[in-house]
Here is the input.
Amino acid sequence: MKFKTAVIEALAMAAASCAISGNPPGRPAPGSQVTRPDKVMNFESLYGSNCAGCHGSEGKGGAAVGLANPVYLAIANDAIIRKVVSDGVPGTAMPAFARQSGGMLTNKQVDAIVTGIRVRWAKPDALSGVQPPPYTDSKPANPERGPEVYAVYCSSCHGVDGRGRSQAGSIVDGSFLALVSDQGLRTTVIVGRPELGAPDWRSNVAGKPMTNSDVTDVVYWLISQRPAVPGQPYPTSPVTMGALP
Here is the structure.
């Protein structure tokens, strides 16, 4: 009897405690519910989970171009950024994030990322009085000018053959060119990589900014350096199947 009485008293105390706290057993405490992934709309959370790994903390750049670069945000409008976030860039490490393209984010979440990037990092007056080359260009390149433009604007850092110097690495490396799109090359030439010490189109040569034609022609030259089959070259001698290396 004493045991039963003790159990009853313990249950009564627990029930009284729940009544006072307003939190019955099994019910989550107020504010403890986990937000569904598709309901997360906070920019910091979305950017940190989906973008920071490549574009860097606070958009400062990393494996990919910094999204907080005001020059980038001056030439890439919201429609461009939204398409890249939604659909990715085929053939590169940039994946699609929108659900309709195979990703995990809703359209509203993609919009939250695009809006957050613009609101936090764009500087409308960053290029006041300066007209940058356009994000894209439909004008055909002049293949003969590409090497000349490279020699003037790029060789001082990347070397006369593009294979790098102490200031900067190779930009004709087959693996690098295999991982970057044509547009990615153009974007980098225009906006630079400030976090890596690479200037934008205005500062490669003091007092002589690159023209749109300069950008187009040197990008064409870079594209022409991309190997047909990136990676390690095939062996020059036949290899017997099953033979040890």
Observations:
- The radius of gyration is 28 Å.
- The longest helix spans residues 2-21.
- Confidence is low (pLDDT under 50) at residues 241-245.
